[in-house]
Amino acid sequence: MKVLILGSKGQLGHCLFDQFSSSEYEPIYLSREEIDITNLDATKLKIADINPSVVINSSAYTNVDKAEDKKQEADLVNHLAVANIANTCKELECWLIHISTDYVFDGAASKPYQENDITNPQSIYGVSKLNGEHAVQSSGCKYLIVRTGWLFSEYGNNFLKTMLKLGSRHNELSLVGDQIGCPTYAQDLAKAVVQMLNYLGDESIVGLYHFSGSKQCSWFEFGNEIFSRARELGFSSPDIIHEITTEDYPTPAKRPAYSVLDNHKSLKVFGIMPSNWSSGISEALAYLCEDNPSDLIINKTQVKLNKTD
Predict the structure, then answer these.
(1) What is the distance between the alpha carbons of residues 146 and 270, in angstroms, rounded to a whole number?
(2) Where are the domains of the chain?
(3) Catalytic residue selected from 113, 125, 155, 258
(4) Cβ proximity of 72 and 113 under 8 Å
(5) Each residue of 104-128: b (16+ CB within 10 Å) or e?
(6) Residues whose CB falls within 8 Å of the CB of residue 99, separated by 6 or more in sequence, listed in order
(7) Digits of tens for pLDDT over the chain (309 positions)?
(8) What CATH number does domain 2-150+184-213+258-275 carry, 3.30.413.10, 3.40.50.2000, 1.10.8.60, 3.40.50.720?
(9) Cα separation, 100 vs 132, whole angstroms
(10) In the annotation, is 125 catalytic?
């Protein structure tokens, strides 16, 4: 089965490369430099030329705060380009697996969000991702939309790597304690996507699915867990971590106070267990320690990260 991965140099794209390396599928990886999904005509021609059985769209505009000022850019990447990809998949009669976000919800809930719960995004980023979902659904293509949240890994820019950077430079940090979500190890998400491919012979599975971490926490708790594991490996970490409120740390884009996702549907349909993000922290840190010695120098006083991060 020929599988086209868009956004191959992003965080999830790197993890998909790792997970496909031991699979029976025929992956084709295209980065943003190789295919600009905002060039709608060129994208359509490129996908048609490859003629895959499945397209996995891991490309996205993910800068939540910058999107508030870059509304058109966010909409182009997360909505209009997605609509073009979905329509192309419809014409080619191939499947589309599209990655979405927990930020399509407003955060007013008190229990984990299910796939059919009412959406009400509070940010431009969330609106653009929701519009992308609607475009996929209305295209008529065979699709799986996978919502996730708080993605982290050893690759790219994410909360874990930001914490390591800050921990190497500051002895005291403040982290928000009143935003609750479920961290998701991107390798687990990539593994889940590969597992979903086994079920694409059954068109009854078309629809929305949630995949995220197995337990909820705040950013403050997530950060403490990261530093607890990091200290054991010799990473520098702050001596003091303050728990603050969202009001204490205003941002251009509003974040949902509660964005925990219910993973039961993915478990029922695909047999996929939620991400064990605590183990994911250990795996990501081990990779950064052992597999990238030229990019990462670790001792008790300094962490030096790749300048491109």
Answers:
(1) 12
(2) 2-150+184-213+258-275
(3) 125
(4) no
(5) bbbbebeebbeeeeebebbbbbbbb
(6) 12, 57, 58, 60, 146, 148, 189
(7) 999 999 999 999 999 999 999 889 999 999 989 999 999 999 999 999 999 999 999 999 999 999 999 999 999 999 999 999 999 999 999 999 999 999 999 999 999 999 999 999 999 999 999 999 999 999 999 999 999 999 999 999 999 999 999 999 999 999 999 999 999 999 999 999 999 999 999 999 999 999 999 999 999 999 999 999 999 998 989 999 999 999 999 999 999 999 999 999 999 999 999 999 999 999 999 999 875 443 343 443 333 333 333
(8) 3.40.50.720
(9) 8
(10) yes
What is the rounded CA–CA span in Å between residue 256 and residue 242? 21
Residue type, 161: K
pTM of the model: 0.93
Q: Token digits for 124?
A: 């431009």
R_g of the chain computed on alpha carbons: 19
- Looking at residue 147, its amino acid is R
In the numeric block, the tokens 């925990």 are attached to 260
Q: Which residues pair with 207 in a beta bridge?
A: 144
